[in-house]
Design brief:
Blueprint: E1 8-12, H1 19-28, E2 33-36, E3 47-50, E4 66-69, H2 75-83, E5 94-96, H3 102-118, H4 121-129, E6 146-149, H5 153-164, E7 169-173, E8 182-186, H6 191-195, E9 200-203, H7 217-220, E10 227-231, H8 240-249, E11 252-257, E12 277-279, H9 289-304
Parallel strand pairs: 1-2, 1-3, 3-4, 4-5, 6-7, 6-9, 7-8, 9-10, 10-11, 11-12
Helix pairs in contact: 1-9, 3-5
The structure holds NADPH dihydro-nicotinamide-adenine-dinucleotide phosphate and oxalic acid.
Length: about 325
């Protein structure tokens, strides 16, 4: 008879029914003990899989070998850790989702935006509402350069796909990258040439102290007149009043926004009143249970074998 203790997994995504997640983990890790966190649960756990957990889920939890963030962006959990720094010791790795089916969704969202704006379907929609028959100028991908901020798991996949589809694509990251068909730029000094004359700006940066508030007047001005903005990263990147001002001046012709500083977007937020802003409720890339569980379980198995895994968050860098 084996005396080995079964592995213990703790799950916490407040506001979401944990049942299908627990089942998916049980199916993928037979023999493991899986439980949803409830207030007052302080029992040991080997691993935790969480999204926006209260500090009590992690604080003082004995036995923890790693914490898995059920999303690609780690700003919510890092914000919590900055408020409550003793919640998770540095020795316990925080591991985020890497793609896990999100890159394909981002590619769909951005390709839709690129076609919509390049062919001006947004304007034709408004014209149709006004019973107006006006033919706008023809458009070619070659005249519609797209600039992608962030060349990580998601930004690299998006920029490479857009480039293969025929758009001139530039990408910007912190450290230098090489992506076939994409003109790459790295570091703050390269931001201005990266932006210069772009017709569509796509944001796929993580929210960090360096990137928050970056999408303001200084970033909009170098773009082409009447450029388009697609923000699918975090609302905290955008200076809302600068965007509204740029839209009113025609500097930005239209924007597709999936993320907001406050979510749900408050009913009285001026973005709702601006017809040139398309709003989606943080759906550009959703966490897919099957893919997420498969990735996490694969990493748990690797950690149990004593191997290193990718996706470990650098808490100082912020992503
Ligand atoms: P990655 O960590 O893989 O990539 C981040 C990229 O941003 C890297 O290329 C990095 O550069 C670059 N970067 C970071 N800081 C800077 C900086 N100061 N200047 C220039 N470049 C910088 O993240 P993902 O691609 O997986 O995800 C990106 C973001 O997308 C997430 O953080 C999240 O906020 C958002 N997201 C939104 C979703 C939604 O539904 N709306 C769903 C999933 C994610 P380098 O490569 O040099 O390190
Ligand atoms: C994520 C998100 O970061 O859903 O994965 O926003």
């Amino acid at each position: 008879m084996s005396t080995e203790k079964p592995m213990n997994l703790l799950f916490c995504t407040p506001g979401e029914d944990p049942t299908p997640w627990l089942q998916a983990f049980r199916d993928a890790l037979p023999g493991a003990m899986m439980r949803a966190w409830q207030a007052g649960d302080t029992a040991p756990a080997d691993y935790a899989a969480v999204w926006r957990p209260p500090a009590e889920v992690l604080r003082g939890r004995s036995g923890l070998k790693a914490v898995f963030n059920l999303g690609a962006g780690v700003d919510p959990i890092l914000d919590m850790l900055s408020r409550e720094p003793d919640t998770l010791p540095e020795s316990v790795p925080l591991i985020r989702l890497e793609d896990a089916g999100m890159a394909a969704q981002m590619i769909e969202y951005v390709t839709y935006a690129a076609l919509r704006y390049m062919r001006r379907f947004d304007t034709y929609e408004r014209q149709r509402e006004a019973h107006q028959w006006t033919v706008l100028e023809a458009a070619r991908p070659a005249d519609f350069p797209i600039a992608v901020m962030g060349l990580g798991k998601l930004g690299a996949a998006v920029s490479s796909t857009l480039a293969k589809a025929g758009w001139p694509v530039r990408g910007w990251s912190r450290t230098a990258k090489a992506i076939e068909g994409v003109q790459t730029f790295a570091g703050d000094a390269a931001l201005a040439p990266f932006l210069a004359g772009a017709k569509m700006l796509v944001n796929l940066l993580p929210s960090t102290p360096e990137t928050r508030g970056l999408l303001g007047k200084a970033v909009f001005e170098p773009l082409a007149e009447g450029a388009f903005l697609v923000n699918i990263a975090r609302g905290a990147h955008v200076v809302d009043i600068d965007l509204l001002d740029a839209i009113r001046r025609g500097k930005i012709a239209a924007a597709m926004l999936d993320v907001f500083a406050q979510e749900p977007l408050p009913a009285d937020h001026p973005f709702w009143q601006e017809p040139k802003i398309t709003i989606t409720p943080h759906i550009s890339a959703m966490t897919l249970r099957t893919e997420a569980v498969a990735q996490i379980v694969g990493k748990i198995r690797a950690l149990e074998r004593g191997e290193k895994v990718s996706g470990v968050v650098d808490r100082i860098r912020g992503y």
